[in-house]
């Protein structure tokens, strides 16, 4: 197994995740409301939150169903939005050395937020923090969904509450600490740019995503944006 | 089986397959040195894309609406080191207010 990184444990992961779990509970509420309004019933949205456990993908599937789209289209758009979890899974893999079930559990609990909380920097991840943070987010997401399907008529339209803007705000709060780096400049295609590599990767990722949005199905722009990390590819010695 | 349950099952199985491919096939083994520079940059690239899409995309259209104000206010709050929960609440409150005012 790769050298386990950092001295943070379950406790640190559980503490770090609390504010995000509260926010995710709110997203869960709005998902429950929307899924119910989309005709998914009361049980299926909760089962989907337990199994798929990926906010944006579940919103996408619900909105396709609501618009009268086919089941295949709804499932495909969810999977396109989750395609980023393939490379994300590869990044945490070196730190998951347990048995098959342990790896599957860690993989299931890997979502954007737990992945970021568990990052130790310089491409290292902490499996204990991942497990604790992922479990906290999972429970919050499931309970939120349950609340949404049960009390949807009390909550009303989530867009009126601005909950759709809370998602990008949370991701922005996760992004900013990742922009710091010891390297002060980046070499891209032989050019030296006076900004750290994570900042260049972020700008490039956002630009790719926005440029592709009008022309590709949802999810594709996000996966393509991931390619911005290739600026970190080291030359073969 | 109803369409809804087909979506739930396909999405659940497919998502776990996407998440678990790396850990199951490569688990416990270090990535080649060449790639260590890449994996640290995947986070910033993906998160920035999620911010951009979540702020400006409405389906396949790019729009500037109440969300841009909300996320802008969140950026200011982050600049002043506000806790994550406060950042999220500010974004939602500003967006909701902008929507209420513009009808």
What would your notes on this structure say?
The complex is a heterodimer of chains A (237) and B (103). Chain A has 237 residues and is mainly α. Chain A has two domains: 10-163, no CATH class; 180-237, no CATH class. Helix content of chain A is 63%, strand content 5%. In chain A, the strands form two sheets. In chain A, strands 1-2 form a two-stranded antiparallel ribbon. Chain A has a two-stranded antiparallel ribbon with strand order 3-4. In chain A, strand 1 and strand 2 (124-125) form a beta hairpin. The model of chain A has no long low-confidence stretch (mean pLDDT 88). With 103 residues, chain B is mainly alpha-helical. Chain B has helices spanning 3-26, 36-56, 66-79, 84-102, and strands at 57-58, 61-62. The longest helix of chain B has 24 residues, at 3-26. Chain B has a two-stranded antiparallel sheet with strand order 1-2. Chain B has a domain at 64-103. Chains A and B meet through helix 1, helix 2, helix 3, helix 4 and helix 5 of A and helix 1, helix 2, strand 2, helix 3 and helix 4 of B.
């Amino acid at each position: 197994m790769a050298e386990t990184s950092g001295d943070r444990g379950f406790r640190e992961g559980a503490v770090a995740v609390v504010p995000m779990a509260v926010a995710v509970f709110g997203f869960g509420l709005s998902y429950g409301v929307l899924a119910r309004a989309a005709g998914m019933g009361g049980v299926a949205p909760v089962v989907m939150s337990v199994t798929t456990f990926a906010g944006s993908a579940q919103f996408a599937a619900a909105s396709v169903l609501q618009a009268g789209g086919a089941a295949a289209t709804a499932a495909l758009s969810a999977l396109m939005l989750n395609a980023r979890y393939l490379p994300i899974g590869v990044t945490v893999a070196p730190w998951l050395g347990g048995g098959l079930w342990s790896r599957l559990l860690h993989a299931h609990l890997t979502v954007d937020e737990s992945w970021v909380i568990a990052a130790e920097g310089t491409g290292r991840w902490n499996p204990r923090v991942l497990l604790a943070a992922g479990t906290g987010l999972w429970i919050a997401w499931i309970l939120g969904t349950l609340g949404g399907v049960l009390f949807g008529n009390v909550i009303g339209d989530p867009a009126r509450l601005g909950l759709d803007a809370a998602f990008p705000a949370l991701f922005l709060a996760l992004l900013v600490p990742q922009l710091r780096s010891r390297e002060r400049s980046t070499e891209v295609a032989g050019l030296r740019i006076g900004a750290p590599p994570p900042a260049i990767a972020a700008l490039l990722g956002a630009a790719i995503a926005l440029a592709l949005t009008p022309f590709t199905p949802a999810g594709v722009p996000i996966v393509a944006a991931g390619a911005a990390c290739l600026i970190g590819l080291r030359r073969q010695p | 089986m109803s369409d809804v349950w087909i979506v739930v099952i396909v999405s659940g199985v497919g998502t776990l397959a996407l998440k678990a491919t790396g850990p199951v096939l490569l688990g416990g083994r270090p990535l080649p040195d060449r790639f260590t520079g890449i994996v640290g940059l995947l986070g910033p690239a993906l998160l920035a894309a999620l911010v951009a899409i979540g702020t400006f995309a409405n389906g396949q259209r790019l729009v500037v609406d109440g969300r841009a104000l909300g996320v802008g206010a969140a950026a200011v709050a982050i600049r002043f080191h506000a806790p994550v929960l406060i950042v999220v609440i500010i974004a939602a409150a500003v967006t909701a207010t902008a929507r209420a005012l513009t009808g």
